[in-house]
Amino acid sequence: MTKTAFVTGATGFLGRQVTRAFDRAGWTAVGSGFSRANPPTILKVDLEDQSAIEAALDETKPHVVIHCAANRFPDKCDADPDGTRALNIAAARRVAQAARSRSILIIYISTDYVFAGKAGEAPYEADTAPNPTNLYGQTKLAGEKAVLEVCENTGMGVVLRVPVLYGHAETPAESAVNVLVDAVWKAQEKDAHVSMDDWSLRYPTNTEDVAGVLVDIAARYLVADEARVAMPKILQFSSEQRYTKFQMCQALAEILGLPLTGMVAQSGAPAGSAPRPYDTHLSTKALKSLGIDVRTMKFEDWWKREMKAFKR
Questions:
Q1: Does 136 qualify as catalytic in the annotation?
Q2: Parallel/antiparallel/unpaired status of strands 165-166 and 234-236
Q3: Catalytic one of 124, 136, 221, 243
Q4: Sign of the C-alpha dihedral, residues 298, 299, 303, 304?
Q5: Closest residue by Cα to residue 60 from 98, 28, 88
Q6: Please, what sign has the CA dihedral across residues 244, 248, 251, 254?
Q7: How sure is the predictor about 272, in pLDDT bands with cuts at 50, 70 and 90?
Q8: How far apart are CA 94 and CA 117, in angstroms?
Q9: Coil, strand or helix at 21
Q10: Rounded to 5 degrees, what are φ and ψ at 270?
Q11: Minimal CA–CA distance to 242: which of 115, 133, 110, 122?
Q12: How far apart are CA 68 and CA 45, in angstroms?
């Protein structure tokens, strides 16, 4: 029997890859969106409407819901705190409630920003006490708690934390990593003086790798039946390659064959924006304990294949 996966935020940066991954793995993959919905593959579902969520699940009858929909940009979260709480917390609770009442597994996508990221603390285990430093991390942590509370003692609620993502994008601005290509080109302009963070440590992870891990998690938890109650409720996935944003720009510039003299490395904590942690490296120990492959594609190798799309 073919299993069905329902992906919220399926028109978004990660959601598109998740939908493709389940489809390629032989699942029936159905997504939801709102402003960019495209029925019948991508249903238009208002996540502020409990009845709309329930109707979508009743129509598609999924075995698993992958909840990707979120406001995931820290500065945008600060600009719209009420909207951010509505999407990152309240909507997560609604989706979890609809899933639980139908005995559907839900996997909630969270972030490494639930941790403070102070020097010397990383890598963080899945059971380390979170301490987010900005509204984005705070709302995603609250979303985690909402999902796990709704699904308590059922084994039907799982959290997957991931770091900053890169990969196939409709526009570079969809990713805090992809957009660095634009910064590298801007640094080529006459008298350019592009400031770039060379302080906070990041572990850029490809959306295709995250999507593949989600397929594996769904398969493991669904086949476990009653045993999943004892399985980990919080999982973490991350590349092990470490960069600052400036170092990512250096790697991208080298691939493009461009100088980077028009870019200036900033060694201190970024000012004038939502606070960023220094190092929120995630341990993947919990995933490994389930026998799930946590290998990732190499940052430079992916960009060498894809960069032709950005060359001018």
A1: yes
A2: unpaired
A3: 136
A4: negative
A5: 28
A6: negative
A7: low
A8: 30
A9: helix
A10: -60, 135
A11: 122
A12: 13
Going by C-alpha positions, the residue among 107, 98, 99 that lies closest to residue 22 is 107
Identify the sign of the CA torsion 8, 44, 176, 20.
Answer: positive
Tokens 């004892």, residue? 230
Quick check: 173 pLDDT over 90?
yes
Q: Is the pLDDT of residue 63 over 60?
A: yes
Location of structure tokens 């940009």: 73
The C-alpha atoms of residue 165 and residue 174 are separated, in whole angstroms, by: 10
Sorting pLDDT into bands at 50, 70 and 90, what band is 309?
very low
String of b and e for 46-82 (b: at least 16 CB within 10 Å)? ebeeeebbbebbeebebbbbbbbbbbbebeebeeeee
The reported pTM is 0.95
User: Taking the C-alpha atoms of 65, 66, 67 and 69 in order, what is their torsion angle to the nearest 10 degrees?
Assistant: -120
pLDDT attached to residue 269? 82
Residue-averaged pLDDT of the chain = 95
Residue 8: both structure tokens together: 């919220």
| H-run or E-run covering 29 | strand 28-33
Residue 11 corresponds to which tokens in the numbers above? 């028109």
Cα–Cα distance between 216 and 292 in angstroms, integer? 7
Closest by CA to 236, choosing from 112, 146, 148, 122, is 112
Question: Quick one: which of 230, 218, 232, 247 has its CA closest to 284?
Answer: 232
Asked if pLDDT for residue 183 goes beyond 80, the answer is yes
Q: 197, 221, 206: which is closest to 279 by C-alpha?
A: 197
